[in-house]
Design brief:
With about 400 residues, this protein is α/β, with parallel strands linked by helices. The protein has 14 helices and eleven strands. The protein starts with 6 loop residues before the first strand and ends with a strand.
């Protein structure tokens, strides 16, 4: 079923995640050509190219749309480039969708790719005292794993989560990732292996924190009319939400070092992360009870449990039960991260939200092979980025 604001996913493509150290444009070109071939459209038919920006790859990374168009061979299409931290890919999809719904393009290519240095992400170089990302490193030494650990400790305090619960998330995702040829880490693990891996940021161990990776993903979106002309029974993007937070915010959200002080402001009914998915559900005319498969932003195993509650799969405090009952595993009622998640891929920032939509598309088309979620009709993907970025994408099939 198509909705007035839906657009068709004609094709998807990826380059396997890894740590090859090659140009991000090489990865992007592979993913883009795969998506075009999957869509059955030629490069010259593309009427807009939207690239996810990557701050680590020099000037071409900042003008990713143009750099990719040049890599594929200039053909005259307009370009756009988006940056929204870890929600970059979803913002790029939203830009493409807006152009299609406005009648400005029928076929749009969306691509995200990254090449990352070894180790954790660091802020842009130089002295930048007006940059909160720089300040968290200089004032607190708060690398990403440091605040990952703080959020995990918060869940343990509020929900009674244990290290064994966090380890069980990794076991689930590693099994799914072992079945995915695009994943970087394809080895299944048991809980003992996870709990014996080195401690990185208490209580999180090495196998409970996602790596940084190289990788790329691409999606070809099209208008409903174009999809009909091609006789494509396509998956539809039914809604995208790219909200920002609202005051007051009582939980510090890095890179910010404190919560806000809007004491007289009445809190909203939902948190920022809860609002991402629920706004998209409302726009798509579905609810969390309709979701068959989800891809969530699992920077850590603890964060995945938070998302279960925030996207409405269960009530607050019930995520661990959902996990241990097998509901979110392959073969469960609502598999979460059947791709293997960031746990199996690592972060290639401009690509990861696009990769989630690739996975949901394969699942809804029945093309996911050994990790197939049977009968999947509605999927949701969620991401959060620094500086108030966030996104949710709902896809569906008639």
């Amino acid at each position: 079923m198509s909705l007035p604001d839906s657009v068709a996913v004609l094709g998807v493509g990826m380059h396997p995640w890894g740590a090859e150290g090659r140009s991000f444009l090489e990865y992007a070109s592979v993913a883009a050509r795969a998506a075009l071939a999957d869509a059955g459209v030629g490069w010259r038919e593309v009427q807009l190219v939207v690239g996810g920006e990557t701050i680590r790859n020099g000037y071409p990374g900042f003008v990713a749309g143009a750099a990719l168009s040049q890599a594929l061979g200039w053909q005259g299409a307009p370009v756009a480039s988006c940056y929204a931290a870890c929600a970059t890919g979803a913002q790029a999809l939203a830009t493409a969708r807006a152009h299609i719904l406005a009648g400005l393009a029928d076929v749009v290519l969306v691509v995200g790719a990254d090449t990352t240095a070894k180790g954790f992400f660091a802020p842009v170089g130089g002295d930048r005292p007006d940059d909160p990302d720089w300040l968290r490193f200089r004032l607190l030494g708060a690398t990403n794993p440091a605040y990952f650990g703080l959020y995990a400790r918060r869940r343990m305090a509020l929900r009674g989560s244990t290290e064994a619960d966090f380890a069980a998330v990794k076991v689930k995702n590693a099994r799914a990732g072992s079945l995915n040829t695009y994943a970087r880490f394809r080895t299944a693990v048991d809980a003992e292996t996870v709990l014996n891996s080195p401690m990185v940021s208490d209580p999180l161990r090495l196998l409970q924190i996602c790596a940084t990776s190289d990788g790329a993903a691409a999606v070809v979106l099209a208008s409903e009319e174009f999809a009909r002309r091609m006789n494509k029974d396509a998956v539809r993007v039914r809604a995208i939400s790219t909200l920002t937070p609202e005051y007051p915010r009582t939980i510090p959200d890095f890179p910010y070092l404190a919560s806000d002080s809007a004491a007289l402001t009445v809190p909203g009914g939902r948190t920022f992360r809860e609002s991402l998915a629920h706004t998209a559900y409302e726009a798509a005319g579905v609810g969390p009870e309709d979701v068959d498969v989800a891809e969530v932003y699992d920077l850590t195993t603890a964060m995945e449990l938070d998302w279960y509650e925030e996207i409405g799969l269960c009530a607050a405090g019930e995520a661990e039960k959902l996990l241990h009952d097998g509901v979110t595993a392959l073969g469960g009622r609502v598999p979460v991260n059947p791709s293997g998640g960031l746990s199996s891929f690592g972060e290639a920032v401009p690509a990861q939200a696009i990769a989630q939509v690739c996975e949901l598309t394969w699942q809804l088309r029945g093309d996911a092979g050994a990790r197939q979620v049977q009968g999947a009709r509605v999927g949701v993907a969620v991401n959060q980025g620094l500086f108030g970025h966030g996104a949710a994408v709902v896809v569906g099939r008639a």
